[in-house]
Design brief:
Layout: H1 2-21, E1 37-47, E2 56-60, E3 77-85, E4 94-104, E5 114-122, E6 131-138, E7 147-155, E8 162-172, E9 179-189
Antiparallel strand pairs: 1-3, 1-9, 2-3, 3-4, 4-5, 5-6, 6-7, 7-8, 8-9
């Protein structure tokens, strides 16, 4: 009985010690954030699917829609490395690039919509080394002048960013899928 009691207390002590050592480290402090700022920036994104040097490449598509006449058939997944420029012209000053992916999410080409995730990184000027992250539905074929996509994060000067981007199609070639889009970003950040 004595040895059973010693074993029981040893086991209880071991469990108590083990529970203490298995806890994770955590330390919560009140956040001291700087004053929130609002930054508005306009740039153009050049999404090129055609030619010798495309900036958007289809990496997957659904078998049912793979033979579609559209360059961006329903269910197609694209990876992008699109230049961001100051103006809409192809050789306008480059200020960054948008990297990420989008999927064609609408069967009806007249209602062409993509769902997009991208990191829009600035490589020159005041915001060099900073980026904004977008993740949103983009109804490209909508006749309304501007579409809105969500800013869900950022880095560098845009750390903890949130906000929205008003997107307007400057130029689109429905045959090739090539497009130039104007982005008017309103970024709330610290």
């Amino acid at each position: 009985m004595k040895s059973t009691l010693i074993t029981f207390f040893t086991l209880c002590l071991s469990v108590a010690v083990m529970a203490r050592h298995e806890s994770y480290y955590g330390n919560t402090k009140p956040a001291k954030l700087n004053e929130e700022k609002v930054t508005r920036v306009r740039f153009y994104l050049h999404d090129t699917l055609s030619g010798q040097n495309p900036t958007a490449v289809r990496i997957a598509h659904a078998n049912l829609t793979g033979g579609s006449a559209s360059p961006v058939g329903f269910g197609s997944l694209f990876v992008i490395d699109d230049p961001l420029t100051v103006g809409p012209e192809k050789h306008s000053k480059e200020i960054g690039n948008g990297q990420g992916m989008y999927v064609s999410g609408c069967k009806d080409l007249s209602k062409f919509t993509i769902v997009m995730y991208a990191d829009l990184a600035f490589t020159t000027g005041k915001f060099n080394g900073s980026s904004i992250s977008i993740f949103s539905r983009n109804p490209v074929a909508e006749e309304v002048g501007e579409r809105e996509i969500a800013i869900v994060g950022g880095r560098g000067k845009f750390r903890m960013a949130r906000g929205f981007v008003k997107v307007k199609t400057h130029k689109i070639d429905m045959k090739t899928g090539d497009a130039v889009l104007r982005y008017d970003a309103t970024v709330y950040h610290y």
